[in-house]
Amino acid sequence: MNVGLVGVTGYSGSVLYELLLHHPNVDHINLYGHSQTEAQSLEKVLPQLRRRDNILPYDSADIMKNNQMVFFATSAGVTTELAAPFIEANFPVIDLAGDYRLKSRESYEKWYKKPAPKEEYLKKSFYGLTDFVNSKGQTYVCNPGCYATTTLLALAPLVQNHLIDPSSIVVDAKSGTSGAGKKLTELTHFTQTDENLQLYKVNQHQHIPEIVQQLKIWDESVPYIQFTTTLLPLTRGIMASCYAKAKDNVTEDDVRAAFVRTYSDDTFVNATEGVFPTLKQVTGTNFCDIGYQLNPVTHQIVIVSVLDNLLKGAAGQAIQNFNQMFDYAPETGLDLIPVLL
Amino acid sequence: MNVGLVGVTGYSGSVLYELLLHHPNVDHINLYGHSQTEAQSLEKVLPQLRRRDNILPYDSADIMKNNQMVFFATSAGVTTELAAPFIEANFPVIDLAGDYRLKSRESYEKWYKKPAPKEEYLKKSFYGLTDFVNSKGQTYVCNPGCYATTTLLALAPLVQNHLIDPSSIVVDAKSGTSGAGKKLTELTHFTQTDENLQLYKVNQHQHIPEIVQQLKIWDESVPYIQFTTTLLPLTRGIMASCYAKAKDNVTEDDVRAAFVRTYSDDTFVNATEGVFPTLKQVTGTNFCDIGYQLNPVTHQIVIVSVLDNLLKGAAGQAIQNFNQMFDYAPETGLDLIPVLL
Amino acid sequence: MNVGLVGVTGYSGSVLYELLLHHPNVDHINLYGHSQTEAQSLEKVLPQLRRRDNILPYDSADIMKNNQMVFFATSAGVTTELAAPFIEANFPVIDLAGDYRLKSRESYEKWYKKPAPKEEYLKKSFYGLTDFVNSKGQTYVCNPGCYATTTLLALAPLVQNHLIDPSSIVVDAKSGTSGAGKKLTELTHFTQTDENLQLYKVNQHQHIPEIVQQLKIWDESVPYIQFTTTLLPLTRGIMASCYAKAKDNVTEDDVRAAFVRTYSDDTFVNATEGVFPTLKQVTGTNFCDIGYQLNPVTHQIVIVSVLDNLLKGAAGQAIQNFNQMFDYAPETGLDLIPVLL
Amino acid sequence: MNVGLVGVTGYSGSVLYELLLHHPNVDHINLYGHSQTEAQSLEKVLPQLRRRDNILPYDSADIMKNNQMVFFATSAGVTTELAAPFIEANFPVIDLAGDYRLKSRESYEKWYKKPAPKEEYLKKSFYGLTDFVNSKGQTYVCNPGCYATTTLLALAPLVQNHLIDPSSIVVDAKSGTSGAGKKLTELTHFTQTDENLQLYKVNQHQHIPEIVQQLKIWDESVPYIQFTTTLLPLTRGIMASCYAKAKDNVTEDDVRAAFVRTYSDDTFVNATEGVFPTLKQVTGTNFCDIGYQLNPVTHQIVIVSVLDNLLKGAAGQAIQNFNQMFDYAPETGLDLIPVLL
């Protein structure tokens, strides 16, 4: 099978390219640059990839002709502009960007401050949170955001089972700098970031509506979440520390049962009661590890989830969606060697 | 004035020693080692201090004879054992450890897992949270814990003014490694800590009862707090990200008014609405900077406070208590050059 | 093929285990603990490996019966004590420790400060610097040290081709903390290591005689090297910045020709003139990248080599030796996904 | 005394401003922005300084009228353009930039790739390496570069006493990111810098001619140095690891005697035989610590010097020059509290 990849030069794109190179069902990867008009040597742009391939100029007809599907690892706004021909043709797309994740055009335009895709296109898009749905047969799959994945996997068992006060959810999320991308900013200038913590987009992060939209699907009564993001002096990983009031009669057993039921058969999610994961135990892997505990004093449930933002939070989950779409085994191409130390 | 310092070798002790060396009202500092029986060269133990002084063997009579007051920068358990003669003699002590902070012996023994000081001694101890009380005339001052200071300064305006649901407080605190002390542990082994986040003592941190004790003084109706600590891959600083539900009728104006009223005349605490501090802006200083915001969607108030755990969170606040005790101007010896970058 | 692994709990051992798990020619890995007398659950000791295997008690007869070869990822001293039965039986061993690397017993005892292996055993050992020799048919292969590999790969083209003044070699080597192992030390206490550089074992590092021994094989006239090691505030990687005076008539062309000739067919070593590698471009890979330049002003040649100390500097090169020993293709099991960022 | 400061917004400028605020002989500091045409609020540009001052528009006449001297903490090129009126008027200037350090205009233009100052101005400039000369009575003092200071202090005793082969000097210098300034670059993008080492300006760093110029003053026979710079994943500090062949008959005693003679009365330089300094032991101070050792095997002398690039390597040495110029005691304003940990 041949696959196309638009946007190899970003962090998610590079990692996705590496995963695809090691995927046993992928024969060839064609790279495309959405703002290029002629071929470019990958070695010049990304010498560290040590590959001779060319990045081809973008041409939707050419992409559909030469590939069985295409990944977009582009920034918000690009697929809004470029995806129409693929959607019209029902050509399989996995989109790592946020463009088609929000079903409400108003919401997208408010949070992303960009024009939203057409209503009819949004209707055809599928939110591929792989641990809860299956992309098989879908043609336009939106790969969930990194913060959204981390948070939703932590909260799912509690929200789906109605164990918490739906208006009590607080999420204190922390992320390494690779989530902020390659663009040079003061926030990510080493001298500024090192030995520092910096909050950003407080109450304004565009993953908030994505998370709430999904929580409402699981429990209509969730009105909102309190969500904060802090930038860490490290490169890779997200931790979401989540807090929610247990409903009055909810016991430790109920909480444990919900997590066990939800994740005991999940390939990539591991939830453990009373043991909180470290960030690094998932670095370099597609795992999302979760620790949870009902505090008997406060009757709050603390749930801490960690994942590698470029793998389970981006390129890894994109491979999961790819595996679902084409009916490969879930772990195909994702048996990675962790960084571990 | 001569001052004694017991426990210069720990991180807080070293920093306190440096501050005292630069304090204009301190003529001489006598160093004591509580487990020493003969004098030791400071240069051998702490060459980086570049000082020729000796650390003298511990002797309470000698300490009282040669100093007008004494600081204890020792670990929990030491002053429980050693402070009696000073308390009996009403000799001025500033104790940086936790031994005398909790008024309840039961609580101390539960959280610290050590025998508590005598009831009568606890009655004479004074909790020196310098921004809210004054140590003038006190003889046994407990310098507040680093997490406790960070959290209490964040919550004080809201709790004192009854603006929040008292059972809704969630504190997600983060600390650099210097807070964990000099002892070698797996948690602070570089290869383990670097590029990592690690939770520790979840729901079990000994600063929890210290915080709740003080919150109850401000508002009896606060039943507990949900408090979590995460170890950061950096050396210095604490951030407390606090969340609490505003009471129904509370407005942004109420919140702002409370912070302005509380801190507008404070030398070391700066609170700003809608601007969240970075950790590094206080590193190397005695400031506690606070950002706060009422989220109109969730009606939660987010309050983020930062301080340098070894200064405002330990040795710096100890100097503040010293200044109060002896009626020096609040900023004496604390006009520090920040690390800034 | 079944392989044995003694010492999975150290950093090199864990990484080697991961590589073996992904090696297509390895059917089963038996783990052994050299100081164990009964089986131990791997999950308990190293939960982050997410494997159910047991670590078996050490028994040389059992190891030889159940495996076609064995890896030792133990610390210096262990194989001196334990390897005899394997050597006597000509059973294939790859030893990641330093015990059998030095051919001179006196030298080993001087630098390692431990009793050396028997002379007759040292004679049978083979120094497996994979880019220059082939372990095929060997039974006791010593996997080179991490600093030794980094330095030797940098210097080989110049020394083998007699392009430099043999007494002018200066090596300024830098290493991340994983090279210092899991043992808790002040040197690797986070608060001490962070934002710091620390020299250690200046002129006393045990890789010095290993490097000189090999350089002398290439050019008898090399008398010694000036070698310094500095500990970095990062986890993974070694950089060796090497300096040597070019002989008077040596030109840029000679230098380039030597590097091209030596490495143009090498799978894992890449040498580039005038472009100096970053440490991170090899993290997570088995590559050793080298940059070199003849400075026309000083007539010194600067050679900078980088590798991942746990891969090309330890477990990765051990896999290369394994591939050579059993005649698998050089890159088998080593097509790794780099950390890249 | 009133002093002017042009360029407070850079890292060196901010630190210098802090030092001046704490200097007992400075009554008032006037800030100037060389590219400003109207006053700017310091609080807006650098809120972390917590100062209400304004940055005034640049006007040389105004500067000379309202101050007794002026500091320039500007980037290369600025004082070439702006310093003329001050030089013509013999108005005291301390220039932290490189413009006037090189006495040869050709050399400046080659290494800095900018037009050099006028010959007559260069003649009046004074290279203020404070440990070896005295700026008293000088009017245009060039504050030495950070790498130059670190390297020259390491080499001075050996070069001045002709103990080494003058063509054998190798300097492997390492620097934190603050030396690279505030400008956003890929080299200092956190995701790129973190867990990485990056060489830059190999054989091309503009401090090379500055160092050689001074070494030649000490010993005309030094022809050049081999000098390499590596960027570290930390903020503050420079380490210069220097290597040089001892002359044949030179002994450990000779080396020690040279260092002792040179630095035993120096306020800020400490040299110790056989003990190599860590970077962090000088962070936040004006000290330069040096360790040295004659290797009996290689007959190379290893000299390792460390300093805080923004203090002894910039703003701190500028204060030393200021103290010399106005005959204040050497340590005035420089009794700093180290970061220590």
Automatic annotation (TrEMBL), chains A, B, C, D:
MF annotations from Gene Ontology: N-acetyl-gamma-glutamyl-phosphate reductase activity
Record SUPFAM superfamilies: Glyceraldehyde-3-phosphate dehydrogenase-like, C-terminal domain, NAD(P)-binding Rossmann-fold domains
Classification via Pfam families: Semialdhyde_dh, Semialdhyde_dhC_1
Recorded metabolic or biological pathway in which this protein acts: Amino-acid biosynthesis; L-arginine biosynthesis; N(2)-acetyl-L-ornithine from L-glutamate: step 3/4
Catalytic activity: N-acetyl-L-glutamate 5-semialdehyde + phosphate + NADP(+) = N-acetyl-L-glutamyl 5-phosphate + NADPH + H(+)
EC numbers for this chain: 1.2.1.38
Domain Semialdehyde dehydrogenase NAD-binding: 2-140
Active site residues according to the UniProt entry: C146
CDD domains referenced in this protein's UniProt entry, alphabetically: AGPR_1_C, AGPR_1_N
Domain of life assignment: Bacteria
Keywords: Amino-acid biosynthesis, Arginine biosynthesis, Cytoplasm, NADP, Oxidoreductase
InterPro entries in alphabetical order: AGPR (IPR050085), AGPR_dimerisation_dom (IPR058924), AGPR_type-1 (IPR000706), NAD(P)-bd_dom_sf (IPR036291), Semialdehyde_DH_NAD-bd (IPR000534)
Similarity comment: Belongs to the NAGSA dehydrogenase family. Type 1 subfamily.
Function: Catalyzes the NADPH-dependent reduction of N-acetyl-5-glutamyl phosphate to yield N-acetyl-L-glutamate 5-semialdehyde.
Record's protein name: N-acetyl-gamma-glutamyl-phosphate reductase
Originating organism: Companilactobacillus mishanensis
